């Protein structure tokens, strides 16, 4: 902190104490007459008066950097010290700029009566009451007047924007620009001051936001401040979009009506280059995947709609489509829920792997060996994965596998091989489901297999691993948002379970774990009520 002594003491070999007593004794009113005993006392008084006058720029007028005696005030305020009740003039050279009477403790405040021009001014304080030829004056005070504002900052830009755009996935972005060399540059987000930096010798400046910004559009602007405290006009606004959160996953994948051959709505089609539609966050780009293969891109319109027409013929059989959304900040969502689509052979056309003629093994059919492996428990809304294996024939030409899922639905697959055929299914409700698999080839070879999924549930009692022979309540979530409501009967310990408003039953856990929630995505919530 810049500081100066406001009241310097009179000095010199004990003269200050001797003189102060005489001055105090000789002050009947606003004027005083010191009792000087000799010419030597008069000489010492003249020296003392000359040495005690002081002049400083007032802090209220010291704009910009404090203590540099540079100001943008054309009539700055000054203060200083002299003898009590003395008339003191403010001079530049021989020109009297203003005057003031010191108060009883010897301090004064004075300002020029007319505006000072821009530039450097050499100022002194001078006694107007002196009766000697050696008029007391203060040391010279050099004061600079600068009222010219710096140039408006220009060329604001985002550093590291995505593909040269004003979009970033950084919550603390960096902006840069040009300003007068050596000026302080203040950066604003709207009307909020974010911080200040300094323009270098080449007039360049750069600023990194110190605190995380929220996602959305931010309006950056800059002002320059010179060392005299002059402020430039505000720069043009730089609009920056901050996007740190990945977009939501696409949803509602569906076969376009124009690609859906009869029977409509069964997720089967004979169109080899079908169109898939869906929803996604507006203004993102959707990538459609067939398994792990990228089969097309689509921009998403302002209403969230998109569609992809597959450009190459799909093979006959089952295809698992998912979609991801990528925003302007190059952030990609998690994959969507899958869409299972079966490409059926066009009637009269040969199936893949056949020559279109009748099966040479017709009338000499063999029994195929069919195997199915996969989980025997699940959760409603969870996609269960199974593997099918078919063998027992040399060629398996024109192999078709039909799976009856036990919930009233079925799917038909046309793999090119019988080994490790992946299939999936999603059960929407509780129950035990008997899966039946039928396989046949063009030579009329056939075979069957069965598999039991004995527990698909939203709530169930499971063995407690920490308490032998005891159980805990297991809650199964779906890939979406789930709301579980538990009504706990205090008297009996029974728990009534509702998931998404559907009563899943009453359960009596005996272990110490309470409940365990198995979620698959979305936002899952559990609300307990003691009754």
Brief rundown of the structure:
Helices cover 5% and strands 42% of the residues. The chain is built from two helices and 39 strands.
Textual characterization of the structure:
- The protein has 531 residues and is mostly beta strands.
- The protein folds into five domains: 15-145, Immunoglobulin-like (Sandwich); 154-242, Sandwich (Immunoglobulin-like), CATH 2.60.40; 251-343, Sandwich (Immunoglobulin-like), CATH 2.60.40.10; 369-456, Sandwich (Immunoglobulin-like); 459-530, no CATH class.
- The protein contains two helices and 39 strands.
- The strands form ten sheets. Strands 2-8-7-4-5 form a five-stranded mixed sheet, with no helix packed on it. Strands 10-16-15-12-13 form a five-stranded mixed sheet, with no helix packed on it.
- Strand 28 (400-404) and strand 29 (410-413) form a beta hairpin.
- It is elongated.
- It starts with 14 loop residues before the first helix and ends with a strand.
- The model is unreliable at 1-51 and 348-365 (pLDDT under 50).
